[in-house]
Amino acid sequence: MLHARRHPSRNRTAWTRFRNAACLILVVAASAAGCAHADEDQSTAAEIVPRVTVPPPRADDVVNVEQVYYAQYRLIAQQIRALAPERPGIPDLYFVGFAGDAQQDVFMREIHSVHRLFDDRFDTRGRSLTLINNRATVTSTPLASTHNLLAALDQVAARMDPDEDVLFLYLTSHGSRGVLAVDFPPLQLNPLTAETLREMLDQARIKWRVIVISACYSGSFIRPLETDTSLIITAARSDRPSFGCSNENKFTYFGRAYFDEALRHTYSFIDAEATAVRTISKWETSENLRPSMPQIYVGAKIGPKLAEIETRLRRLHAAPPPTPMAKPIPMSER
């Protein structure tokens, strides 16, 4: 069967937009003129951005804002160049993880764990990248900033077959209604709004989307992100907080229930949500917490595409057919 292929100019155009945006950030952050003279050949990141060595930070170090900003293009370019192209005839899954808040290590730990889970269990190795705000990763991993997220989505899209492949985007941070916290003091980063995220995904022309958000009030992201080709799962209703954002934790409550427990026993993102809802409810009841009420939106056309992914993963891992799941909790009861 012949498969429609992305026009070769798409990759060049996406990379050009990414390079230009990176240059703009460097000019604003450090008044650097190097980007204006970037070699059009751009064979290596060092030819475009001066190589800056950022020493590993100590707990008492002050973040060097200029050096951190200079390092961004090199760091994200490394991850982007490592991305594998899509495989014709195979519905590939691409993973992007975003840990937005640097002040609590739980978000960094969660993204690291989920990244490993997807590479090992969901066949995203070579097709995954992470953006993290944390002092421990500032020299090795791109910042979780709105600019870097846009660049990551644009470059992932350039490698995907838009009709065949699926993006799994996981965002974890603090949140308020319609806003995901993007904090890394003393860096001044812009928060991520639901509307901005929708614009990014539309601009990248990513058709098939699984978007999972672990944050307080994250249900407020659902309506702005709804499309027929999207699955959206959130840790809380639009008017409720979620729990587990403690510095010593490896996971938030939602992250642990959905990724570390449910998705280790199923390849269905929808079935895992139903299992996680019950698990979280038990935890919250035992601790006398106000229910967070995780939410799910299933686009009218996304079901068959996810079933295709699930079937391929079961065959890949020689897993038995799925067992019937308990009836999901109706949205009206959440």
Description:
The chain has a 6-stranded mixed beta sheet with strand order 2-1-3-7-8-9, with helices on both faces. The longest helix has 23 residues, at 8-30. The chain has 2 domains: 10-55 and 63-81, no CATH class; 88-321, Rossmann fold (3-Layer(aba) Sandwich), CATH 3.40.50. Strand 7 (208-214), helix 6 and strand 8 (230-234) form a beta-alpha-beta unit. The protein has 334 residues and is of the alpha/beta class. It is built from 9 helices and 9 strands. It has helices at 8-30, 65-81, 105-121, 146-159, 194-204, 222-225, 253-261, 269-286, 302-316; strands spanning 93-99, 128-132, 166-172, 175-176, 179-180, 192-193, 208-214, 230-234, 295-298.
Task: Describe this protein with a few key phrases.
alpha/beta, Rossmann fold, 9 helices, 12% strand, disordered N terminus
Query: Low-confidence stretches at least 5 residues in length (pLDDT < 50)?
Result: 1-12, 22-55
Q: How many DSSP helices?
A: 9
Radius of gyration: 20 Å
Helicity range: 25-40%
Mean pLDDT, to the nearest integer, reads 84
Distance between the termini: 44 Å
Fold-level CATH name of the largest domain: Rossmann fold
Query: Could you say what the CATH architecture of the largest domain is?
Result: 3-Layer(aba) Sandwich
Query: CATH class of the largest domain, anyone?
Result: Alpha Beta
Q: Looking across the biggest beta sheet, what order are the strands in?
A: 2-1-3-7-8-9
- Shape, per Cα inertia axes: globular
Q: What structural category do the secondary elements indicate? A: alpha/beta
Tell me about the largest β-sheet.
6 strands, mixed
Number of strands: 9
Order of helices and strands: HHEHEHEEEEHEHEHHEH
Provide the β-strand percentage band.
Answer: 5-15%
Q: How many structural domains in the coordinates?
A: 2
